[in-house]
Design goal:
Radius of gyration: 27 Å
CATH architecture of the largest domain: 3-Layer(aba) Sandwich
CATH class of the largest domain: Alpha Beta
Number of helices: 19
Number of strands: 16
Shape: globular
Strand content: 5-15%
Helix content: 40-55%
CATH topology of the largest domain: Rossmann fold
Structural class: alpha/beta
Number of domains: 4
Length: about 450
């Protein structure tokens, strides 16, 4: 269905010309010359975007701008004949996505509208990612996850740039990669998932780049590699740190030039695939130790995204529990609807060394064992049922001064860990609690291998 565009303009000639030209370009224009007409059309037609003149007979376009921004997520572009920076800046501060200075070309109008509609689509998709119970989507409203989803909004449309996803095992790196793909212009293309630790060096090279017939003993036919399969879509390389140096070099050439050769081949092949890589390792340490190519690391980390561990986003635990409980109730034919308060408190307090994967497995088990409609402590593993003990694997934030005392590094790690826990993984907030900058927090984390 064509996007419906509200054109609020008191100049009849401009109004009709813009409407006629937009209709030719597969938009559905609805026109108004006053605020009253515009409000009626908004109620009746529910526009997808709006072009608003600043000066009108019964007010200003900023009146409608404010109403649209506050009541619905409708991108608004201002039209001004005065060309004053002040009016444009004021409109942008109120929520306009852009402004056009008269006279303007219809090409400029179309480009501005399409960009605004695409940004709005991404924002709506991202809001759905933050809500509970959405199958196959990232879930979370904690500060740390808001940072991630804000980054995704910027990263996903830049479909030519590589992305490096960092995070502990079980934090959802594969799901995040698929989310970036689904929100990118490549969404209709293939998403090819490759686990880099699954095969030996020679087999991985053939799996990624394919081989020519007769390239080696068992190469009886030509084989297309997964890089070719990903043409027009996304190539996701999980556990990228496990690639051998030889394959790393060939991958670097492909990322930089979009060309490669099959094993045993002599002809360069061109493929247009976006590369997203992920690892739970400290790649910078691997570079220093000579296990990972420095040039490939810099090429991969153009747009790095770090997924926080679950222990740094405790406020997201109830959302995740609700999503998993609903999903497994349907899958297992159960009618589990609630989690008892004490059980939920233990789930929130747990340190989650296995992150979201561990939580998902525990909720699946609990749904299977629950006879009624509520998950209680008795349905959780034994370590959650112990009274008088925290399930957090950390001993606490107070150091144990034994006979030999405690070293400052241990104390610093404890303080970092507690600050990150209280800030739910938000490094800027953790830095504020410690009197440090975000950069200083990052440097101290790097000193401890990325995790205090």
């Amino acid at each position: 269905m064509n996007e419906r565009i509200l054109i609020l303009e008191d100049d009849k000639l401009i109004r009709e010309v813009v409407a006629e030209r937009l209709a030719r370009r597969d938009f559905e224009p609805v026109v108004a010359s006053t605020l009253a007409e515009a409000r009626r059309l908004i109620a009746e037609a529910s526009p997808d975007a709006a072009l608003l003149d600043v000066q009108l007979p019964d007010g200003t376009g900023t009146d409608i701008l404010r109403e649209l921004v506050e009541s619905d997520d409708v991108p608004c572009v201002m039209m001004t004949a005065h060309g004053t920076i002040e009016s444009a800046v004021a409109a942008l501060r109120m929520g306009a996505v852009d402004y056009l200075e008269k006279p303007f070309s219809i090409d400029r109008v179309e480009a501005t509208l399409r960009a605004a509609l695409e940004r709005t689509r991404l924002r709506r998709e991202l809001r759905s990612l933050r809500g509970p119970g959405v199958s196959g989507r990232m879930i979370g409203t904690s500060p740390a996850m808001r940072e991630v989803t804000d980054l995704v909004e910027k990263v996903a449309p830049a479909d030519a740039a590589t992305v490096l996803i960092l995070g502990e095992t079980g934090t959802g790196k594969g799901l995040l990669a698929r989310t970036i793909h689904s929100l990118s212009p490549r969404a209709d293309g293939p998403f090819v998932n490759v686990t880099c630790s699954a095969l030996t060096e020679s087999l991985m090279e053939s799996e990624l780049f394919g081989h020519e017939k007769g390239a080696f003993t068992d190469a009886r036919t030509l084989k297309r590699g997964l890089v070719e399969v990903a043409d027009g879509g996304t190539l996701f390389l999980d556990e990228i740190a496990e690639l051998s140096p030889g394959v790393q070099g060939k991958l670097l050439r492909f990322i930089e030039e979009k060309t490669f050769r099959r094993v045993g081949g002599t002809r360069d092949l061109v493929v247009n695939a976006r590369v997203i890589a992920a690892t739970n390792r400290d790649l910078e340490a691997d570079v220093r130790d000579g296990r990972f190519r420095q040039d490939l690391f810099y090429r991969l980390s153009v747009l790095p995204i770090e997924l926080p561990p679950l222990r740094h986003r405790a406020s997201d635990v109830p959302l995740l529990v609700a999503a998993f409980m609903s999903s497994y109730s349907r899958e297992l034919g159960r009618r589990v609807r609630h989690v008892e308060p004490e059980a939920m408190e233990r789930l929130r307090e747990h340190d989650w060394p296995g992150n979201i994967r561990e939580l998902r497995n525990i909720i699946e088990r609990a749904v299977l064992l629950t006879e009624g409609d509520s998950i209680g402590l008795q349905n959780l593993p034994r370590e959650f049922q112990r009274t008088g003990e925290k399930t957090d694997t950390a001993a606490g934030t107070t150091p144990d001064f034994g006979p030999e005392g405690v070293d400052l590094a241990t104390l610093e790690r404890m303080l970092l860990r507690e600050a990150l826990r209280r800030a739910e993984g938000n490094r800027s907030e953790a830095g504020r609690l410690l009197g440090l900058s975000r950069h200083q927090v990052r440097n101290r984390l790097a000193k401890y291998g990325g995790e205090p």
